[in-house]
Write a structure and sequence with these properties.
Length: about 170
């Protein structure tokens, strides 16, 4: 059933050299940003960007907060758990499985997510994620708009929800 096999992404040799993948890490999908010529590469452990100037930025999948794929513009926007500036790339039509692979890898890193019980418009969640490279679990708190870490109500909700999710997954 060869139609079920994924074709191996073709990357230029200089990009593969820049990736310098350790044993066990493999390229799953890639695409070239049409605005910057950066190669956006999804591996089994990281989302990596190899810029045109050969700068390499690799972030593990558990650091991705969310992603938005715009099929009309072929654009991917990624927000990060640490709140750093989102990544945004526009690919233009090309033969790539990057959107599907991105979705699958982020989902693979999420073990359990629980919304914080907050009053008003404040939002947040506690997430147990898997570091896909180390195969370990970690707990993350993601505070949204209106939720401040120094608010006693938020602190209490984070403590209770963290205890609940950690217990639920056996941590």
């Amino acid at each position: 059933m060869s139609f079920l096999k994924r074709s191996k992404p073709q990357l230029p040799p200089e990009v593969l050299e820049q990736l310098d993948l350790p044993k066990g890490e493999r390229v799953l999908a890639s695409a070239v940003d049409k605005l910057t010529a950066a190669h956006v590469v999804a591996t089994n452990w990281h989302l990596t960007v190899v810029a045109a100037d050969s700068t390499v930025t690799a972030r593990p999948w558990h650091q991705v907060d969310a992603g938005q794929w715009e099929p009309q513009t072929w654009s991917l926007t990624v927000t990060w758990i640490d709140g750093k500036r989102p990544g945004q790339w526009t690919f233009g039509p090309q033969d790539t499985r990057l959107p599907e692979t991105f979705h699958e890898r982020v989902r693979a890193s999420i073990v359990l997510a629980e919304e914080l019980p907050l009053e008003g418009r404040a939002k947040g969640r506690v997430v147990v994620r898997r570091d896909l490279q180390a195969d370990t679990l970690l707990t993350q708190t993601v505070l949204g708009r209106g939720a401040r870490a120094d608010d006693p109500q938020v602190r209490d909700a984070v403590e209770r929800t963290t205890a609940y999710v950690r217990d639920a997954v056996g941590l």
